[in-house]
Amino acid sequence: MAVAAVGRGDSCNAAARALGCATSTVVCAVRRYREAGREALRDRRAGNGHPKVDGQFRQRLERVLAGTPEDWGWCRPTWTRELLCVELQRRGMPRVSVATMGRTLASLGARLKAAKPIVQCPWPAWKRRRRLYVLRCMEAHKPPEEPVLHVDEVDIHLNPKVGRDWCLPGQRRVVVTPGNNQKRFVAGALNVRTGKLTWVEGRSKASTLFIQLLWRIASQYRRARRIHLVLDNAAVHTSKKTRRALAQLGGRIVLHFLPPYCPEGNRIERVWLDLHANVTRNHRCRTMARLMVRVHAYLAARNAQRSASPSLRRADLRRAV
């Protein structure tokens, strides 16, 4: 088409604009046609041989990405595209360019992610799995008059948690921090059967906050014969004040402890993640009072709509502000 356009008298620039390609593409096509005729216009990519990136290449790349560079003998903790090219070549694969490696990673759905720091459970794997299995069986088989709730506490900071947000090219979201950080603490209990959330607010994460939650749970589940709480091994859950409060409640509330450092076994952790995503991340509240109003509004709306991201009406948001 480029050669035909130039043959009709169009300039190379005009032909390139009409075809939506670079002017150099039209110039090269015309030059090849003048030098060797029609045969020079044939697609010559058929002589390139087999593609370097095939199914086997992708499988080995997935196997490499399952570990860290240190697992494969490199003195570096994170992968780069250049290092992946070298590692695949060391494994007998053809050497590819950095751009080709980037396209291959995109085709696999691989992307740069922040690492998740965790503390490993000190229990043996079999003991940890058995404990989690016992707790799941309790949740599944307890009668309705003995509700099972997952309990945990969350920190609310006046300095906002900074997170990603959609922005136009050349723009970046700006979040003004108040400077002097303030904290509030929310203790909550999630009913695993109904999804209902019970929570209290406090100025410190002490036994008093947890005891306040115990009395709130006891008042909301008055008809319950026994209330089972699944929670972690924090000191406030086993303090002397807490044991005295449990005794005052007449043994109606029974504590079941998770294995150490096992947040994935507590369902309420998902609620706190949603709370940060919907309220505290990149927030613009200048006072802790305004922020806590929004926190309570979100938790109340979540209870009402049973949704991780309840849509609050504008009028509600104005009241929260």
Give a description of the structure.
There is one protein chain. The chain has three domains: 47 residues, no CATH class; 53 residues; 181 residues, Ribonuclease H-like superfamily/Ribonuclease H (Nucleotidyltransferase, domain 5). β2 and β3 form a beta hairpin. α10 crosses α11. Helix content is 43%, strand content 11%. With 321 residues, it is of the alpha/beta class. The termini are far apart. The chain has a five-stranded mixed sheet with strand order 3-2-1-4-5, sandwiched between helices. One of its GO terms (molecular function) is nucleic acid binding. InterPro entries: Homeodomain-like_sf (IPR009057), RNaseH-like_sf (IPR012337), RNaseH_sf (IPR036397), Tc1-like_DDE_dom (IPR038717), Transpos_IS630-like (IPR047655). This is IS630 family transposase. It comes from Myxococcus llanfairpwllgwyngyllgogerychwyrndrobwllllantysiliogogogochensis.
Give the topology, please:
Elements: H1 2-7, H2 12-19, H3 23-36, H4 55-65, H5 81-90, H6 98-107, H7 125-141, E1 148-157, E2 183-191, E3 197-202, H8 207-220, E4 227-231, H9 240-248, E5 253-257, H10 268-280, H11 288-305, H12 314-320
Helix pairs in contact: 2-3, 5-6, 8-9, 10-11
Q: Specify the structural class.
A: alpha/beta
Query: How are helices and strands ordered from N to C?
Result: HHHHHHHEEEHEHEHHH
What's the CATH topology label of the largest domain?
A: Nucleotidyltransferase, domain 5
Per CATH, the class of the largest domain reads Alpha Beta
CATH architecture tag of the largest domain? 2-Layer Sandwich
The total number of structural domains is 3
Instruction: Give Rg in angstroms.
Output: 31 Å
Tell me the fraction of residues in β-strands, as a range. Answer: 5-15%
Major pleated sheet:
5 strands, mixed
CATH superfamily caption of the largest domain:
Ribonuclease H-like superfamily/Ribonuclease H
Strands of the widest sheet, in order across it, are 3-2-1-4-5
Distance between the termini: 63 Å
Identify the overall geometry.
Answer: elongated
Q: Work out the helix count.
A: 12
Overall mean pLDDT score? 90
Which segments are poorly predicted (pLDDT under 50) over 5 or more consecutive residues? Answer: 313-321
Number of strands: 5
Oligomerization category of the chains in this entry: single chain
Helix proportion range: 40-55%
Pfam family, one: HTH_32
Domain Tc1-like transposase DDE: 148-290
GO molecular function: nucleic acid binding
Protein name: IS630 family transposase
